[in-house]
Specification:
The protein is built from 7 helices and 2 strands. Strand 1 and strand 2 form a beta hairpin.
């Protein structure tokens, strides 16, 4: 999904981008509603292996059409990889690396986990102790601190993962609000185009 949004931003000019995002959103919403139903029907009638008879040809056709019709997009300049920012955002987990357990690599993922856990389970523990001396307020404060660590690092980075110049409220806040409300909204508005 993120790759499709980046591709739309790179390929379409600013005056046509809104329509492209609208079409993409409509197709994604129809797929989200019809996919499980059609998948269940296909599984029930032809077995789970039959999804490959549908998905593989469609995927290959998509690759061929993309190779033929999409323009080659090259960045104007080389970008640097922010390894610390990625570690802070993902909890230090990458497919090729062994899990890291240092405090810096726990920021965004575990910060959000701590906040959500504290808010969801707070009433169950009467907003008191969860394990030993650790209580729900401690978990919430730790979550906010981990998110603050990510925002602090990202604002210092030469090429931040979430550039704050993209929205007035700052990208990290917009990202958290958007990512938490996205699954609940069946009709998402297209992202607003930001001039550079």
């Amino acid at each position: 999904m993120p790759q499709a949004l980046v591709l739309i931003s790179a390929v379409f000019p600013a005056h046509r981008r809104g329509a492209a995002f609208g079409i993409f959103t409509a197709v994604a919403d129809v797929a989200a509603v019809s996919g499980p139903t059609l998948g269940g029907l296909l599984d029930t009638e032809a077995g789970w292996q039959s999804v490959f008879h549908l998905n593989v040809p469609v995927g290959l056709a998509g690759q061929l059409l993309a190779a033929r019709h999409l323009p080659r997009v090259r960045p104007a300049r080389a970008h640097r990889f922010d390894a610390v920012g990625v570690a802070l955002a993902t909890g230090g987990r990458t497919p090729s690396a062994r899990p890291r357990r240092d405090p810096v690599s726990l920021s965004l993922t575990y910060g959000l986990l701590a906040i959500v856990y504290g808010l969801v389970e707070g009433q169950r523990y009467a907003w008191g102790r969860v394990l030993g001396p650790v209580g729900v307020p401690h978990i919430l404060v730790a979550g906010v601190a981990l998110l603050a660590l990510f925002v602090w690092w990202d604002r210092r980075a030469a090429e931040p993962l979430l550039p704050s110049h993209r929205s007035p409220a700052g990208s990290p806040i917009g990202w958290v609000a958007g990512s938490s409300s996205w699954p609940a909204s069946p009709c998402r508005p297209a992202p607003r185009s930001v001039p550079r």
